[in-house]
Design goal:
The complex is a heterotetramer of chains A (332), B (164), C (375) and D (152). By secondary structure, chain A is mainly alpha-helical. Chain A is built from 13 helices and no strands. The radius of gyration of chain A is 21 Å and the shape is globular. The chains are: A mainly alpha (332), B alpha+beta (164), C alpha+beta (375), D alpha+beta (152). The interface between B and C is large, with 46 and 47 residues.
């Protein structure tokens, strides 16, 4: 008997249409892409750091050590996952699971090329913002559940930091959204076919990059981890694959933040000679490279300075930028 | 070679110290051989008066230490000043083993730790010290390592015989 | 600056908690234990618990002949082992009245100053790493590596040199050493621009260090602070100038001081001191006299009964060796005045009111070596 | 930190700050394309300097084609860590002693070089071997006379 003849399946298929196929295939691709991508990015980070510091970085496994992170992943899977005695066990266990959810879900709406998008949503950008806030929750959960003071300080810092930096992030995004009149990501990209938003909105672009660095807890805003103060911050007590999941989420968040910046400011898939996806991925990886480059150049801010920077510098400037954008658009 | 300023300061110091601690023996010593200009030695009194005198002249307390002379302790305070006329003053106080001296930590905060160290290694219970605990040795140690009767190894004796 | 809360303002049960920073912690430069009482992230009270690497060097000295203490002297402050080693030799020479040949004294100055540059480079870069910049640390390490290689060619070792001997030094330096040292000096002078651009000028670095951890002159005097930490507080005191040992009286150099007394001042003083050390090395190499490198001293020395105090400037401050001799081959008592010991104690005074992140910065800027504190 | 924080200063700080950050990024970017300075240890090996202080070794002299050790034991007595043990032997009665066995516990040696300094026959030197790894502590105890035989 044909399964599709069943009324319930028919209903679901009718409801979802060809999207079901796209959804399943897309999800599979994302599930493959996310770990491989973060493994690649770990390698990129180590290589870039190495060459900046006049050393070669990983060289042993594979040509120029490209397989190093895969081997490390295998090692991490074999490691014992230690749960501290006094930890809140369910939360401790859940935090690394929850942290990968936004990493996977956010890929659903990113338009890699005009055709390569798993699901077109009218509010794609909002979905990404909504889901990326979950990572703050899981950091809080992990830090709280570890029952370690360093973890707790890291977690508290993470919450304050993500609240402070989401505001300028949204404000700078708003100025782009005002320009293209849509929350749809593909719409924003196709609006940039002639001129990138980076040219029209340089201030918003820079603020967006700064804030996304802070949102993904990367140096110089890596107070959540702050090795020299908090040992390892919220994931001090995590070992093995749980720790690796936090890392995976961090690197995927980096990639998503870069993709967002590409969509919003750097013309998405637009570019000469190559097809859309190549341009998109090239641009996204270049932005990832920039964040890595920043990390290995600057010292870390102190917590009060981080807050001052968000509230006294970034928010006023992004508000001003939004105001100017709105006036200019109204006048034109 | 002593400069004029140093000589003057030395004279002043000698007089003032003699005035504040009359029972002490104060003598000038050869800097080239010993590394200090003025030697102040007394038995069991005067370390706080000397410290106050030194502090008023902006001298720096370099170190506090003790030497175990089996029958008694010699507590050594070294003072040095940052000025142009450098004078190092060596203050030796002989105290019997059963009669602990007073602390100078009220005058020099640095002495809190330095005297803790002396207590830690010699067991000298400084009177009126705010925080006299073990510092380098374990908290529960029941020995005072730098006393002469502690841990004399047999190997040393052997070396002594062979080399001397 | 943050307003310092006193204990009376706070309901202890609700607000304060204790944090053990160390003994195993990435930024405590060894095994040092801070027992912090925190209000949120602000330190209310800091207590330093030391002694985790106590090896009893002073007791060891009472159980071995003077020569056998050579290796111990360098192991106290492993970052400026050459200076400690030379200082110990000079203390014993003072006790015995040994006259050291001029060439040996110049070689001691050259090697000590190279060691000081290496130590300062590490100190400065470790401080920067504590603030969170990892790359400058490795650039500094790159420079330091050249010094270590250079010193290895004559001493055969990279940290615990064991190079000075009573009455002189062990191995003579030759033209190749001088040439490489000159090349290093030229390179180092160019590197200052890199450090200034990458670190000193960086706005984040400035924000993190200016006005943080201020040690005033009076506090410095009260707590017996010495070395670059003291000179960062505006006191012009350097043992090399005030009581010239080896042959420092022959050289023309300045003592850099800063009035501010904050982390930035200490950092700048260290960088300026590297520059002055390079000057000293250059002068010493230009005027290097010929002659023997070791005085004629017996294989095992026997100092006369008596005592002596020898003070010298290590990379961290004024070190003193107080040696009491009873006329035998074995010291009766050997006391080391460790500068880091006093420099660390001042932290309990200045830390309250700062963030935990500042604690790391202040600790880095004071630049202590834990084995030297613990001895 | 500064209470009188004017608007002008605020704007100026943003600009000077951004400039300093860009300068810093330029420096690291330049360094990225410089050649590496590290030694890739197992693939490249550093050359030891002539004065390198490894463990001690006996010198082979040309005149006797052997060491000159007379087993006086001065090195054993000077050693601060007491890691040397020398065993001498006389070939025939009335002859000079010569060192037959010379044990050094390298795991406890602090490489101070006092034994080399003090040796009256100057028959000790430092080896330039630095890759010494053992499976047990006992493997660190070596007989340098035996090693001398192997080198011959």
């Amino acid at each position: 008997m044909n399964m599709t003849q069943l009324p319930i399946i028919k209903d679901i298929y009718g409801f979802l249409g060809p999207d079901l196929l796209v959804g399943v295939v897309g999800l599979l691709l994302v599930l493959i892409f996310v770990p491989l991508n973060s493994a690649f990015l770990v390698w990129v980070e180590r290589k870039v750091a190495g060459h900046i510091q006049l050393r070669p970085g990983p060289m042993e496994v594979g040509p120029h050590g490209i397989l190093q992170s895969l081997i490390d992943a295998v090692k991490l899977m074999c490691k014992e996952m230690i749960t501290p005695d006094l930890a809140d066990k369910p939360l401790f266990w859940m935090a690394p699971c929850i942290v990968v959810i936004p990493a996977i879900v956010c890929f659903v709406v990113i338009p890699f090329s005009p055709v390569m998008q798993i699901r077109e949503l009218n509010v794609g950008i909002l979905l990404i913002f909504a889901f990326s806030s979950i990572s703050g929750l899981s950091i809080m959960m992990g830090g709280w559940a570890s029952n370690n003071k360093y973890s707790l300080i890291g977690a508290v810092r993470a919450v304050a930091q993500s609240i402070a930096y989401e505001i300028p992030l949204l404000l700078s995004t708003m100025s782009v959204i005002i320009m293209s009149n849509s929350f749809k990501m593909s719409q924003i990209v196709s609006d940039q076919s002639t001129v990138w938003n980076f040219i029209l909105q340089p201030v918003a672009a820079i603020i967006f990059i700064i804030c996304s660095t802070a949102e993904t807890n990367r140096a110089p805003f890596d107070l959540v981890e702050a090795e020299s103060e908090l040992v390892s911050g919220f994931h001090t007590e995590y070992t093995g694959m749980r720790d690796a999941l936090f890392f995976m989420a961090e690197y995927t968040a980096m990639f998503i933040a870069s993709s967002m910046a590409v969509v919003l400011f750097f013309g998405g898939w637009h570019g000469p000679f190559f097809s859309g996806i190549v341009w998109f991925v090239l641009k996204a990886y270049f932005l990832v490279f920039v964040t890595v480059w920043i990390r290995w150049t600057f010292p870390r801010l102190r917590f009060d300075q981080l807050m001052n920077f968000a509230w006294k510098v970034l928010i006023p400037i992004s508000l001003l930028n939004l105001l100017v954008t709105a006036i200019v658009i109204k006048v034109l | 070679m002593l400069t004029e300023g140093q000589k003057k300061l030395l004279e002043e110091l000698k007089n003032n110290l003699a005035k504040s601690v009359p029972e002490a023996k104060i003598s000038q010593s050869d800097y080239v051989l010993t590394g200090y200009h003025l030697e102040f030695s007394s038995s069991k009194v005067g370390m706080r008066r000397v410290a106050k005198e030194m502090r008023s002249r902006r001298f720096n307390l370099e170190t506090v230490t003790a030497v175990d002379f089996i029958d008694s302790f010699e507590i050594v305070y070294l003072y040095f000043n940052y000025n142009q006329d450098n004078i190092r003053v060596m203050v030796r106080i002989r105290v019997p083993k059963d009669e602990p001296p007073f602390t100078v930590s009220a005058v020099y905060s640095e002495a809190i730790w330095l005297e803790r160290e002396v207590y830690d290694f010699f067991g000298i219970q400084f009177k009126e010290h705010p925080d006299l605990r073990r510092i380098l040795n374990p908290d529960d140690a029941d020995y005072f390592p730098l006393l002469k009767n502690f841990g004399k190894t047999t190997i040393t004796g052997e070396i002594d015989d062979m080399l001397c | 600056m943050l307003t310092m809360k006193t204990i009376d303002d706070i309901n202890i049960n609700e607000r304060l908690y204790q944090l053990n920073l160390g003994p195993q912690h990435p930024s405590t430069h060894g095994v040092l234990h801070f027992l912090l009482t925190l209000d949120g992230e602000v330190v209310v009270k800091a207590e330093m618990l030391i002694g985790y690497t106590h090896r009893g060097h002073e007791k060891m000295a009472e159980n071995r002949i003077y020569e056998q203490f050579y290796p111990n002297s360098a192991r106290m402050d492993y970052l400026s082992g050459m200076i400690f080693n030379t200082g110990y030799c000079e203390a014993v020479e003072k006790l015995c009245g040994i006259e050291v040949p001029k060439r040996a004294r110049y070689i001691r100055v050259i090697t000590s100053e190279l060691n000081r540059v290496a130590s300062h480079l590490l100190g400065v870069m470790d401080f920067v790493m504590g603030i969170g910049a990892y790359t400058p640390f490795l650039y500094g390490w790159d420079d330091r590596e050249i010094i270590l290689d250079l010193l290895e060619t004559i001493t055969g070792s990279r940290l615990t040199y064991n190079y000075s001997r009573f009455g002189g030094v062990r191995v003579d330096i030759d033209q190749t050493f001088c040439d490489s040292a000159r090349r290093f000096i030229d390179r180092m002078r160019e590197r200052f621009k890199l450090y200034n651009d990458l670190i000193t000028g960086n706005i984040i670095f400035i924000k993190r260090t200016v006005g943080v951890g201020v040690i005033s002159k009076d506090v410095a005097l009260d707590y017996g602070v010495t070395g670059p930490t003291l000179r960062g507080s505006g006191v012009n005191y350097d043992v090399r100038k005030s009581e010239p040992y080896s042959s420092y009286e022959d050289f023309n150099f300045e003592i850099p001081t800063k009035e501010e007394g904050d982390c930035m001042a200490r950092y700048l003083v260290r960088l300026a001191e590297i520059e002055q050390s390079l000057r000293i090395i250059e002068q010493a190499m230009n005027n290097l006299p010929d002659g023997p490198i070791r005085a004629d001293v017996p294989c095992f020395i026997t100092p006369p009964a008596g005592d002596c105090y020898h003070s010298f400037e290590s990379a961290r401050g004024a070190v003193g060796y107080y040696i009491v001799s009873d006329g035998t081959r074995i010291p009766y008592r050997l006391k080391v005045r460790a500068p880091s010991f006093s420099n660390l104690f001042v932290m309990s005074k200045i830390i309250p009111g700062h963030f935990v992140a500042d604690l790391v910065a202040i600790f880095g800027s004071i630049d202590v070596t834990v084995p030297e504190i613990d001895r | 930190m500064n209470t009188s924080y004017g608007f002008k200063q605020y704007v100026k700080e943003i600009f000077t700050g951004s400039k300093s950050l860009i300068i810093g990024m330029g420096i690291t970017l330049k360094h990225m394309f410089k050649p590496i300075v590290t030694v890739q240890y197992p693939r490249q090996k550093p050359i030891m300097t002539p004065h390198f202080r490894g463990h001690i070794e006996a010198i082979i002299f040309d005149d006797t084609k052997s060491h000159h050790c007379v087993a006086c034991g001065l090195c054993a007595r000077t050693c601060p860590s007491h890691v040397i043990k020398v065993q001498g032997e006389k070939t025939k009665a009335g002859d000079r002693k010569y060192g037959k066995q010379y044990f050094i516990d390298f795991t406890k040696c602090s490489l101070c070089g006092l034994c080399v300094d003090v040796c009256p026959e100057k028959t000790l030197k430092f080896s330039d071997e630095y890759e010494l790894a053992f499976y047990s502590r006992w493997d660190g105890v070596m007989d340098i006379m035996q090693r001398l035989e192997e080198r011959k």
